[in-house]
Amino acid sequence: MDLDPTIRTLTLLTLLQSGGDWTAADLAERLGTSVRTIRRDAQRLRRLGYTVEARPGPGSTYRLSPGIKVPPLLFTVDEITALVAGLHVIRTWLPKEAVASSALLKLDQILPRPLRRRAAATNLATEVLQQPDAAISAATIGVIADAVAEDSRLRFRYIDQHDRPSTRLVEPYRHFLRAGQWYLVAFDVDRDDWRTFRLDRVTDISPVAGTYQPHEFPDVSIEHWLTTDFGRATSRSLRSAAKPAR
């Protein structure tokens, strides 16, 4: 078994978290590696801020200090930078909600010291100046995400660009950010066609019980679908190319 070094170190941390003393030989056997590699991985955990105690000698053992709080994931410093910067973007798009700020606070509480320093530095250095045209809801995004993952339908109230209200039954495909707005692209069941919906105009969204066979998205990408007039420009080009020469 030849594990990626990061995966192997995470697995080592998980084993140590289970408690008790582990011999280097037992850990090496569980991870399919050498005792020397176990020593290097234990040192790597120490550099990340975890207190890994070792008893030297032929029967050397490893354990985590009692009471240590182990976060569920290991991050590199660059991953922490991306995560914190991304949360700043999300916080801008959810100005009325505290989810991004609370996530940043929780990161500060669970990360080991070296990663906590990078998270704090990125938090201090990052500012998102672009303001959204309209706020969206984290709860709405969550309902859409669950429906996409479970192949379920959604029902919601919608106000179109002419301020006309309607109730929609859709099969959601993706939500996307484009030109300063968040949209949902979905198959509209009642209209038997693919449509886009601005998320800030969606209210009272709820999943519809049951699992359905979703319609296949009609293009290679959302971007191509949008830039070809929802696929119509491509269809017109194909029809023109198919006409016989005169």
- Biggest sheet, spatial arrangement of strands: 7-6-5-4-8
- Number of helix segments? 9
Tell me the distance between the termini.
Answer: 67 Å
Number of strands: 8
Oligomer: single chain
Percentage of residues in DSSP E strands: 15-25%
Low-confidence stretches: 241-246
- The overall average pLDDT, rounded, is 84
State the helical fraction.
40-55%
Please state the structural category.
alpha+beta
- What would you call the shape? elongated
Q: Could you give a short account of the major beta sheet?
A: 5 strands, antiparallel
Order of helices and strands: HEHHEEHHHHEEEEEHH
> What does the radius of gyration come to?
26 Å
Could you walk me through the main structural features you see in this protein, from its secondary elements to its overall organization?
By secondary structure, the protein is α+β, with helices and mostly antiparallel strands. 43% of the residues lie in helices and 21% in strands. It contains nine helices and eight strands. The strands form two sheets. Strands 7-6-5-4-8 form a five-stranded antiparallel sheet. Strands 1-3-2 form a three-stranded antiparallel sheet. The longest helix is centred in the middle third of the chain and has 17 residues, at 77-93.
